[in-house]
Amino acid sequence: MRAFLLGALLVTGFLSEATAQLAVGPTSITSRVNGVPVTVSATSRITVNSVGDEITVDARIFADLIDLQKKFPDIVDSFKRTATCNRGADSQNPVVSFRSGSLWPRSDQLIMFVRGDIDIWSCTPGPAKSAVRWERKKIAFMKLKLPVMRTWRSIKKSKDGTQAFHGTLPVYLMEKDDATVGLRITEPSIRLDGQEASVTNANLKLAMVDMNQKASKAIQSAIDLGKLKDALPRELQKLTMTVVSARFRDRGGHAIAEINLASKLSGSATALLLQQIAASYKSN
Prior knowledge:
By secondary structure, this protein is of the alpha+beta class. It has helices spanning 2-16, 66-77, 201-222, 225-228, 234-237, 267-283, and strands at 19-33, 36-51, 54-64, 91-106, 109-139, 142-175, 181-185, 189-192, 242-251, 254-266.
Protein backbone atom coordinates (compact mmCIF):
# COMPACT_ATOMS: atom_id res chain seq x y z
CA MET A 1 0.00 0.00 0.00
CA ARG A 2 2.82 2.40 0.86
CA ALA A 3 4.50 1.72 -2.50
CA PHE A 4 1.19 2.43 -4.29
CA LEU A 5 0.80 5.75 -2.47
CA LEU A 6 4.38 6.74 -3.27
CA GLY A 7 3.81 5.93 -6.95
CA ALA A 8 0.65 8.02 -6.97
CA LEU A 9 2.56 10.82 -5.29
CA LEU A 10 5.29 10.83 -7.96
CA VAL A 11 2.75 10.63 -10.79
CA THR A 12 0.80 13.57 -9.37
CA GLY A 13 3.94 15.68 -9.02
CA PHE A 14 5.28 14.66 -12.44
CA LEU A 15 2.11 15.21 -14.46
CA SER A 16 0.66 18.27 -12.76
CA GLU A 17 3.85 20.26 -12.15
CA ALA A 18 2.48 20.82 -8.66
CA THR A 19 3.43 19.89 -5.13
CA ALA A 20 2.36 16.53 -3.67
CA GLN A 21 2.94 15.24 -0.15
CA LEU A 22 2.92 11.91 1.71
CA ALA A 23 3.39 11.08 5.41
CA VAL A 24 5.00 7.73 6.34
CA GLY A 25 5.43 6.09 9.74
CA PRO A 26 5.94 5.86 12.59
CA THR A 27 8.73 3.26 12.28
CA SER A 28 10.40 1.85 15.40
CA ILE A 29 14.21 1.59 15.18
CA THR A 30 16.11 -0.06 18.04
CA SER A 31 19.83 0.35 18.77
CA ARG A 32 22.01 -0.60 21.71
CA VAL A 33 23.66 2.35 23.43
CA ASN A 34 26.38 1.15 25.82
CA GLY A 35 24.44 -2.10 26.11
CA VAL A 36 21.12 -0.34 26.82
CA PRO A 37 18.38 -0.97 24.18
CA VAL A 38 16.99 2.35 22.92
CA THR A 39 14.05 2.62 20.52
CA VAL A 40 13.65 5.65 18.28
CA SER A 41 10.23 6.32 16.73
CA ALA A 42 10.78 7.80 13.27
CA THR A 43 8.28 9.35 10.85
CA SER A 44 8.87 10.97 7.49
CA ARG A 45 7.15 13.49 5.27
CA ILE A 46 7.77 13.21 1.55
CA THR A 47 7.23 16.21 -0.73
CA VAL A 48 7.46 16.03 -4.52
CA ASN A 49 7.85 19.14 -6.70
CA SER A 50 7.95 19.06 -10.49
CA VAL A 51 9.49 21.76 -12.65
CA GLY A 52 9.79 20.99 -16.35
CA ASP A 53 11.45 17.61 -16.84
CA GLU A 54 12.87 17.45 -13.31
CA ILE A 55 11.36 16.25 -10.07
CA THR A 56 12.68 17.22 -6.65
CA VAL A 57 11.95 14.78 -3.82
CA ASP A 58 12.32 16.25 -0.33
CA ALA A 59 12.21 13.93 2.68
CA ARG A 60 11.97 15.23 6.22
CA ILE A 61 12.68 12.63 8.92
CA PHE A 62 11.54 13.21 12.51
CA ALA A 63 13.09 10.92 15.13
CA ASP A 64 11.48 11.01 18.59
CA LEU A 65 14.25 10.51 21.17
CA ILE A 66 12.04 10.22 24.27
CA ASP A 67 13.18 6.63 24.91
CA LEU A 68 16.81 7.82 24.85
CA GLN A 69 15.87 10.52 27.38
CA LYS A 70 14.12 8.04 29.67
CA LYS A 71 17.01 5.57 29.59
CA PHE A 72 19.80 8.13 29.72
CA PRO A 73 20.34 7.59 33.50
CA ASP A 74 20.98 3.88 32.77
CA ILE A 75 23.36 4.82 29.95
CA VAL A 76 25.25 7.21 32.24
CA ASP A 77 25.46 4.47 34.86
CA SER A 78 27.27 2.30 32.28
CA PHE A 79 30.11 4.85 32.00
CA LYS A 80 32.65 3.01 34.15
CA ARG A 81 36.36 3.71 34.56
CA THR A 82 38.92 2.07 36.79
CA ALA A 83 42.13 3.49 38.18
CA THR A 84 45.25 2.69 36.18
CA CYS A 85 48.83 3.25 37.25
CA ASN A 86 51.96 4.33 35.45
CA ARG A 87 54.46 1.64 36.37
CA GLY A 88 57.47 3.81 35.56
CA ALA A 89 57.29 6.25 38.48
CA ASP A 90 55.22 7.61 41.31
CA SER A 91 52.12 9.26 39.95
CA GLN A 92 48.64 10.52 40.71
CA ASN A 93 45.85 9.33 38.46
CA PRO A 94 42.44 11.01 38.27
CA VAL A 95 39.46 8.81 37.47
CA VAL A 96 36.14 10.30 36.38
CA SER A 97 32.89 8.52 37.24
CA PHE A 98 29.29 9.59 36.66
CA ARG A 99 26.55 9.08 39.24
CA SER A 100 23.48 10.45 37.47
CA GLY A 101 22.45 12.16 34.27
CA SER A 102 19.52 13.46 32.26
CA LEU A 103 18.94 14.69 28.72
CA TRP A 104 16.61 17.56 27.75
CA PRO A 105 15.90 19.52 24.57
CA ARG A 106 16.43 23.28 24.60
CA SER A 107 15.47 24.98 21.33
CA ASP A 108 17.87 23.55 18.68
CA GLN A 109 20.12 21.63 21.07
CA LEU A 110 20.21 18.81 23.59
CA ILE A 111 21.47 19.57 27.08
CA MET A 112 23.14 16.77 28.99
CA PHE A 113 23.07 17.22 32.79
CA VAL A 114 25.41 15.05 34.84
CA ARG A 115 26.69 14.59 38.37
CA GLY A 116 29.81 12.64 39.14
CA ASP A 117 33.07 12.31 41.04
CA ILE A 118 36.74 12.73 40.27
CA ASP A 119 38.73 10.24 42.34
CA ILE A 120 42.44 10.91 42.81
CA TRP A 121 44.51 7.74 43.10
CA SER A 122 48.15 7.55 44.09
CA CYS A 123 50.25 4.86 42.49
CA THR A 124 53.41 4.02 44.44
CA PRO A 125 55.96 1.43 43.27
CA GLY A 126 56.93 -1.10 45.93
CA PRO A 127 60.43 -2.52 46.50
CA ALA A 128 62.12 -4.20 43.58
CA LYS A 129 61.82 -7.98 43.41
CA SER A 130 63.92 -10.32 41.30
CA ALA A 131 63.61 -13.94 40.31
CA VAL A 132 65.00 -16.36 37.78
CA ARG A 133 62.53 -17.49 35.17
CA TRP A 134 63.04 -20.14 32.54
CA GLU A 135 62.29 -18.76 29.10
CA ARG A 136 62.54 -20.32 25.65
CA LYS A 137 65.32 -18.77 23.55
CA LYS A 138 66.38 -19.47 19.98
CA ILE A 139 70.11 -20.15 19.58
CA ALA A 140 71.23 -20.88 16.04
CA PHE A 141 68.85 -23.59 14.87
CA MET A 142 67.83 -24.75 18.33
CA LYS A 143 65.22 -23.58 20.84
CA LEU A 144 66.32 -23.98 24.42
CA LYS A 145 64.92 -23.05 27.81
CA LEU A 146 67.45 -20.83 29.60
CA PRO A 147 67.42 -19.12 33.00
CA VAL A 148 66.74 -15.34 32.78
CA MET A 149 66.85 -12.89 35.68
CA ARG A 150 63.74 -10.69 35.77
CA THR A 151 63.11 -7.69 38.05
CA TRP A 152 59.75 -6.05 38.72
CA ARG A 153 57.96 -3.79 41.16
CA SER A 154 54.46 -4.21 42.53
CA ILE A 155 52.28 -1.10 42.37
CA LYS A 156 50.24 -0.02 45.37
CA LYS A 157 47.08 1.99 44.64
CA SER A 158 45.50 4.25 47.27
CA LYS A 159 42.75 6.84 46.98
CA ASP A 160 43.87 10.32 48.06
CA GLY A 161 40.51 12.00 47.77
CA THR A 162 37.27 12.45 45.89
CA GLN A 163 35.83 15.66 44.46
CA ALA A 164 32.17 15.76 43.43
CA PHE A 165 31.15 17.84 40.42
CA HIS A 166 28.12 18.66 38.31
CA GLY A 167 28.02 19.88 34.75
CA THR A 168 26.06 20.60 31.61
CA LEU A 169 27.00 19.80 28.03
CA PRO A 170 25.20 21.36 25.00
CA VAL A 171 24.99 19.11 21.93
CA TYR A 172 23.96 20.21 18.42
CA LEU A 173 22.92 18.08 15.44
CA MET A 174 24.38 19.09 12.08
CA GLU A 175 25.14 17.82 8.59
CA LYS A 176 28.73 16.55 8.38
CA ASP A 177 28.67 16.19 4.60
CA ASP A 178 26.20 15.38 1.83
CA ALA A 179 25.66 11.85 3.12
CA THR A 180 25.94 11.93 6.92
CA VAL A 181 24.89 13.82 10.01
CA GLY A 182 26.87 14.21 13.22
CA LEU A 183 27.10 15.99 16.53
CA ARG A 184 28.74 19.28 17.40
CA ILE A 185 29.57 19.28 21.09
CA THR A 186 30.57 22.54 22.72
CA GLU A 187 32.76 22.85 25.80
CA PRO A 188 30.92 21.62 28.89
CA SER A 189 30.35 23.78 31.91
CA ILE A 190 31.56 21.97 35.04
CA ARG A 191 31.44 23.14 38.64
CA LEU A 192 32.98 21.49 41.67
CA ASP A 193 30.73 20.78 44.63
CA GLY A 194 31.65 21.62 48.21
CA GLN A 195 33.91 24.23 49.79
CA GLU A 196 37.29 22.54 49.37
CA ALA A 197 38.41 21.70 45.87
CA SER A 198 41.07 19.00 45.83
CA VAL A 199 41.06 18.74 42.04
CA THR A 200 43.46 20.61 39.79
CA ASN A 201 42.52 22.37 36.54
CA ALA A 202 44.15 19.55 34.59
CA ASN A 203 41.91 17.00 36.29
CA LEU A 204 38.89 19.19 35.65
CA LYS A 205 39.76 19.24 31.95
CA LEU A 206 39.92 15.45 32.08
CA ALA A 207 36.31 15.40 33.30
CA MET A 208 35.34 17.68 30.40
CA VAL A 209 37.05 15.45 27.84
CA ASP A 210 35.43 12.39 29.41
CA MET A 211 31.98 14.00 29.17
CA ASN A 212 32.54 14.94 25.53
CA GLN A 213 33.68 11.50 24.45
CA LYS A 214 31.04 9.53 26.30
CA ALA A 215 28.14 11.84 25.41
CA SER A 216 29.12 11.94 21.75
CA LYS A 217 29.34 8.17 21.47
CA ALA A 218 26.09 7.52 23.34
CA ILE A 219 23.93 10.05 21.50
CA GLN A 220 25.41 9.29 18.07
CA SER A 221 24.60 5.61 18.57
CA ALA A 222 20.91 6.48 18.83
CA ILE A 223 20.94 8.83 15.80
CA ASP A 224 22.16 6.61 12.99
CA LEU A 225 21.11 8.11 9.65
CA GLY A 226 21.52 4.76 7.93
CA LYS A 227 18.92 3.26 10.27
CA LEU A 228 16.68 6.34 10.31
CA LYS A 229 16.27 6.06 6.54
CA ASP A 230 14.16 2.97 7.31
CA ALA A 231 11.40 5.50 7.95
CA LEU A 232 11.39 6.25 4.20
CA PRO A 233 9.62 4.11 1.61
CA ARG A 234 11.96 1.37 0.36
CA GLU A 235 12.02 2.88 -3.13
CA LEU A 236 13.30 6.22 -1.85
CA GLN A 237 16.00 4.46 0.17
CA LYS A 238 17.55 3.45 -3.16
CA LEU A 239 17.95 7.07 -4.23
CA THR A 240 21.06 9.12 -3.61
CA MET A 241 19.65 11.67 -1.18
CA THR A 242 21.68 14.64 -0.03
CA VAL A 243 21.59 15.85 3.58
CA VAL A 244 20.27 19.43 3.45
CA SER A 245 20.07 20.22 7.16
CA ALA A 246 19.81 18.63 10.60
CA ARG A 247 18.82 19.97 14.01
CA PHE A 248 17.29 19.07 17.35
CA ARG A 249 13.82 20.30 18.27
CA ASP A 250 11.80 20.50 21.47
CA ARG A 251 8.31 19.07 21.17
CA GLY A 252 6.71 19.32 24.58
CA GLY A 253 9.81 18.01 26.36
CA HIS A 254 10.43 15.31 23.75
CA ALA A 255 13.77 15.65 22.03
CA ILE A 256 13.28 15.39 18.26
CA ALA A 257 16.03 14.93 15.69
CA GLU A 258 14.93 16.53 12.42
CA ILE A 259 16.89 15.58 9.28
CA ASN A 260 16.08 17.02 5.85
CA LEU A 261 17.11 15.12 2.70
CA ALA A 262 16.66 15.95 -0.98
CA SER A 263 17.10 14.26 -4.34
CA LYS A 264 16.56 15.40 -7.93
CA LEU A 265 15.23 13.08 -10.64
CA SER A 266 14.97 13.47 -14.39
CA GLY A 267 11.88 12.33 -16.25
CA SER A 268 13.52 9.05 -17.29
CA ALA A 269 14.74 8.35 -13.75
CA THR A 270 11.24 9.01 -12.43
CA ALA A 271 9.74 6.60 -14.97
CA LEU A 272 12.20 3.90 -13.88
CA LEU A 273 11.37 4.50 -10.21
CA LEU A 274 7.64 4.23 -10.99
CA GLN A 275 8.28 0.87 -12.68
CA GLN A 276 10.10 -0.35 -9.54
CA ILE A 277 7.24 0.86 -7.34
CA ALA A 278 4.70 -0.88 -9.57
CA ALA A 279 6.68 -4.13 -9.42
CA SER A 280 6.92 -3.84 -5.64
CA TYR A 281 3.20 -3.21 -5.36
CA LYS A 282 2.32 -6.25 -7.50
CA SER A 283 4.66 -8.52 -5.48
CA ASN A 284 2.94 -7.48 -2.25
